[in-house]
């Protein structure tokens, strides 16, 4: 019977389930290159996947529709950056005909190029942030590839909806931010009967929905197919980004056993007690272990991941000379802890834009005589915006000197994802700031200025410049670069300094949640538990009350760190570690084994070869005297079986072997002599080495 866990990725990947209906097949048909056999550029080692798995997936890449005009032999190494979204801004042309594209300078994925060696070409694979109609997709793909070396992934709408809005945003996103789904037993019961049927109702309360998981896997396969279209597996590195694409490494590893694959998780990785509630916990861990290097922002996220590997897969890590590695079937999967940074030049370029000057002056006038505390967050449920408002309200009440003087400007950027419970949070926030403004506001003074629209980089930087303190009260956030951006804006540039906007010594103050990834790097910040509203209120008061000298010292310390640990520093370090992790790749002998998410590559030193069945049989038949040593657990009985007693079939085979006078047969085990003696009492000619050879039964 097919397991409910549906671990056979192949079935999912081939679309053999009802959840997505014909849409996925249609999408595959649209792309001319999918399913095409290609010329082999890489010789696979003997004994690969096809022999062991009974399937022929291991197939090297070559060229495709978008890349067909690119020379097939690209010299030099390239980096393929794969992410849910391309670092591209797409705009419909004003006349409605076609699209115009430009780089998204604010995208971290684009910025990471600065840390990549010049000789390494960077290609991007990902979705386009616009609804490109089906009829225009081919043309758009070609344009993006030709002009930007961007390979566009288009998912059918229904698949995208279930992949992104359902599985990513309603299941993984909350869980990875440490939020457990609260499902009633009734809805759980529905879940087990709904399974992959496309008519299944969407899961409520964040309850796991298998159909959405299947959509996630299938969407990952769409990304994989696009990678295959452009990849040179011998020369290229692949760097996969974030929680949307955690199944992708398995697809890549299955096809290219020795591909060099890195992964960076931008979101948090929750404690194992949270993570273990995910019904596909092993599948995702195993998929990630098909990478060569897995990166996290903080030590805690990495520690959580390692303890999940230990508790759920029984894999222990080793730490050698500062490197953490997981031994996984002969391969070492590196673990990298390195928080991301910002792009200094990009931010400084914004600081030098002419229209910034008047924006800063305008804000200086608007908030003249006021002390501005600033929040810049995405409008999502984990940013703790309401907690910040409550803390601010508390500060105004307990420190009345700030009434009429302190203003909290909160920028809340609208988000794409229809995250869980977002509407309720928005209503709560509205209620809070209306209440605060109602109680403490007066003519010419609104204590809370709430901006819930997209704000340009120029406008944002102007707010940073005039803010005395930035407050981040997220209850969980992978990293959060708001404090870094603020520090750089407060530092200004030599050019901006010549203007009137920042005078005197540079100073800044931060109140940051202890639950965000950037918190450990900001030693001069006042760290708070945002759930403790009173303590956060005190921290806000302290931050804006400190002496200028103290604010200056803290600012200098932060600026030194932020300006040296920028995005290029991060990407350079990641790529260097990826290179190191893969240095033996082409020297080792690799075999792909296992089905679905159980797929992994077994890597061996080149001196090892796989035993060949025909040669074993021939040697057996030729030999006159044979010693046969059999391990017990995992060899004669499956490791996973609860009943450890040898089956009658095993006893029969052992007796057959023992009956041949040319054979000496021994069981070698760590088990005790009594148990082994009892189990094999019907095999009188069998030798037993019990307790690792401490006791011998020789016949
Ligand atoms: O909302 P999504 O499209 O699913 O993307 C998730 C978020 O990605 C980015 O944030 C993540 O990466 C940042 C840089 O490493 C990190 O600071 C943050 O903590 C991560 O969540 C993006 O900045 C967010 O807007 C997206 O919501």
UniProtKB/TrEMBL annotation:
Gene Ontology BP annotations: trehalose biosynthetic process
Keyword check for Ribonucleoprotein: no
UniProt entry tagged with the keyword Membrane: no
Pfam families: Glyco_transf_20 (PF00982), Trehalose_PPase (PF02358)
Bias (Polar residues) ranges: 61-70
Residue numbers spanned by region Disordered: 50-70
GO cellular component: cytosol
GO molecular function, one term: trehalose-phosphatase activity
SUPFAM superfamilies per record: HAD-like (SSF56784), UDP-Glycosyltransferase/glycogen phosphorylase (SSF53756)
InterPro entries: Glyco_trans_20, HAD-like_sf, HAD_sf, Trehalose_PPase
Keywords: Glycosyltransferase, Transferase
Origin superkingdom: Eukaryota
PANTHER family linked: TREHALOSE 6-PHOSPHATE PHOSPHATASE, TREHALOSE-6-PHOSPHATE SYNTHASE
Recorded family membership: In the N-terminal section; belongs to the glycosyltransferase 20 family.
The name this protein goes by in its record: Trehalose-phosphatase
Source organism of this protein record: Triticum turgidum subsp. durum (Durum wheat)
Upper taxonomic lineage: Eukaryota, Viridiplantae, Streptophyta, Embryophyta, Tracheophyta
